[in-house]
Design goal:
- The chain is an alpha/beta fold.
- It has seven helices and 14 strands.
Length: about 240
């Protein structure tokens, strides 16, 4: 199954990276709705989408306003945005407030409540991660392959979410900070590069892809030191297409 990285940056978009948006075109699934959502129409293979929001910070929801233009009307009406109830309420109240975006959305909203059945016999489970305002991670499983998406949290070896992501085929994990960032990861609810490698060595995915990168970081980070901890690691770039 293919995963398309439509937005791999955090906080604000740059010429190199839109903000968080991951798409599985074959099954009509999108993880987070950052500014990378503007590219969804280029990869659309289904007559509906299920969009799962990790949380409601702007760099993860701003792309919902793009759907009016990037999706055909018949697809938009069959599209559902899934998130925690209070996050959906915040999106309704603020993002689609008349003074900010006066065009009412035509897609549907569904609070997350337990496991979600996915096309082709898959399932999605959500779990809480530590981040200001609260956030979720996701694990998606199909017979024979699995994916975990963890963004906007601080990677530590004692974090409870590690038990939710063990032995997945593909781990997409945020790595906002490079090493030498001091206590900024804990203060901001984000992760440092070396800590993410330590987490991968513990949970043992087949492959680790780093995303939600600080927009001020260079496009090509030096991964030599962390590859000694976990060899199968790479840095995500917008437009990458992964198989898992």
């Amino acid at each position: 199954m293919k995963v398309v990285l439509l937005g791999t940056g955090g906080y604000f978009p740059t010429a190199q990276r839109q903000t968080a948006c991951i798409m599985l075109p074959e099954v009509g699934i999108v993880l987070d709705a950052g500014t990378g959502m503007c590219r969804v129409g280029d990869y659309l293979q289904s007559d509906r989408l299920d969009i799962f929001l990790s949380h409601a910070h702007l760099d993860h929801i701003a792309g919902l306003t793009c759907l009016i233009n990037v999706l055909p009307a018949h697809v938009s009406s069959q599209t559902t945005v899934h998130a925690e109830r209070e996050k959906l309420e915040a999106v309704h109240k603020h993002l689609f407030a008349d003074a900010i975006f006066p065009v009412p959305p035509t897609f549907n909203f569904q609070p997350l409540d337990g496991e979600v059945a996915l096309p082709n016999g898959g399932t999605l489970k959500h779990f809480k991660v530590t981040h200001p305002g609260g956030a979720l991670g996701f694990r998606l499983d199909w017979p024979g392959h699995s994916l975990a998406y963890v963004t906007d949290t601080t990677a530590t070896l004692d974090a409870p979410y590690l038990n939710e992501i063990r032995n997945v085929d593909l781990l997409l994990h945020e790595s906002y900070f490079a090493d030498g960032s001091g206590n900024l990861p804990a203060l901001t609810g984000h992760s440092a590069l070396a800590a993410v490698a330590d987490v991968a060595a513990e949970v043992k995915p087949r492959h680790l892809v780093l995303l939600h990168i600080d927009p001020l970081q260079p496009r090509d980070l030096d991964l030599a030191s962390v590859k000694q901890v976990f060899p199968k690691i790479c840095l995500a770039n917008d437009g990458d297409v992964l198989e898992f």
